[in-house]
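Catalogue entry: protein
Contents: sequence, fold tokens
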Amino acid sequence: MRGVRSAERGIEVVDVPDPPADGEQVIVRVQSASICGSDLHLIEYGPLPQILGHEFAGLLDDGTAVAVDPNRPCGTCDQCSAGYGYRCRTGSQRIHGVSTDGGMADAVAVDPASIVPLPEGLTPATACLVEPLGVATHAVRLAGLSGGERVAVIGAGGIGLATIAAARGSAAEVGLVARHESQRIAGERLGAVPADGEYDVVFECAGTESALETAVRLCRPGGRVVFLSTHWSPVAIPSVPALMKELGFQWSFTYGAHEHGTDLGDAAMLLASDRLIAGTLITHRFPLDAAAEAFRVAGDRAAGAIKVVVEP
């Protein structure tokens, strides 16, 4: 079968062995896999042994449509035992597309516990968005919005726009700070308005020092900044303004379970109930054999790329 790897010459589609059918895992025939900003950072490290892709969806051998949780917690450490499998002590060693083979392939073997059933109305062609939207639903849940807060989102890439979609039903208003005009338009299509004034909660989705400065500036005294972004290099905290406002900082990492279900399940339901989300986030689709071009386009945010999807 085919798989996408970061090789010496860049992104390549290579022949790889079929995933093993060992009885302990299930085979997902991939229908869609989207490119994350973290994938673009990951390939900067050069050649990698694993197949890329942690945002993917497909079909089981019986035809069941599913999305996939790429994280595989150990199930035995203190974090797993306490119900925080997404904070598993050794989980980073088993993330599909990051440390083990991922979903940019014709098929992938996954643990049955990683399967996310799709609700009616959501197809595997767009369910690759369940994973990034799950990141957003988790962060919004951690923010504890009660319905009357003014919320701002800094950054309008895939995660920032997903956060708008996840937050708009629980906030009085969602303000947006976007770098590119196409991103601003996409955010407004999802219900955001240009950020203006002070906000109760600010979601930082850009991962830059300037984004952090903007988040602190927009957050009201006593408010909270929630980080969904990855700071790939250390950033300076604007400590005096944050101190004088007594701001709370909350980091949000991937997604987990809660008393009513899971963040990924919530994301799947949200995607199924509002087709505008997928229609706004997915800007490009490429066949798997054109993965190199897909990665090139995904890296050109100024040209309007948001979520670029590859399809086996």
Observations:
- The CA atoms of residues 147 and 171 lie 5 Å apart.
- The chain is about 30% helix and 25% strand.
